Amino acid sequence: MRARTAISVAALTFAITAAGCGHDKSATPPSESAATPATAQASPQPSGQPDVNDNGVPDNSGDDKDWPGKMTVTYEDATSPEAVTGRDLIKNDHLLEDLADGITESLKLPFDIPLIGKQCGTANAYWSPDAKSVTICYEDAADALSIYTKAGDPDPKASAINSEIATFYHETGHMVIDIYDLPATGREEDVADQLAAYILLAPGPDGKIDPESVQAVKDFAREFKGYSDQRGGEIDEGQLADVHTLDLARMYNLECWVYGADPTGNADLVSSGALPQDRADGCEDEYTKLSSSWDTLLGPYLK
User: Fold this and answer.
1) 14 — phi, psi (to 5°)?
2) Where is the signal peptide (predicted)?
3) Taking the model in full, what pTM does it have?
């Protein structure tokens, strides 16, 4: 498994344990008819078996045999030039395999969850509540590569991979809210951004955050700046009414959480002017509340 992915999931487990828990970018796809069908349907539980929610997830008293699932990977065909570019970027990096392994190793899953790379016809990524699957569109990776190339990154492929890692964990946020029936106060898209930051910014056993994971969140934030630039910085009523927070606001949120997780290590965000001082002043408390909330919500479902 890629070191960066392994570190992030291991750090997540350690961080929650140490905290004492005993216990889009995504958008609705134009059609989910082509998505992998759900492979698990809740069935009536015999007497003496743990209660389950509508997704077949056992209550917290269930032991390991109640969590037989794993995340599986499929790369579908690509035909358009943009989709081929995105597919090659993530497939040659074995990205989906690494991410799926990390989820299988860290989360209790009640059934198999497909992680699908596919040509969607648009830059997108999404969790399908009906199919119980995560889809990463090849065009999303290609679009990220274009943004970082135009930004003059020395290694735009690495930046694009970082963004797709964070995108995946954003979709993981939607996934865990759905399958574990977790409460989410506020817009779910914002909560999913928080989970991506939470996973990637979790400190390891040495108390330090993996620098590559920090960079993944920073690159994810910069991608939203790229989206805003693509629109010429204009804001219309459709964007204001959208379920997603405005691109630049998402960028500042992510930068705030990076800074809040380690103000000393990420002081460059403020000194460079990327994060306004007025927002930075509250970011440590903001991240602490975010982290504590996800410790409580996700703790019971960690292996």
Assistant:
1) -65, -45
2) 1-18
3) 0.81
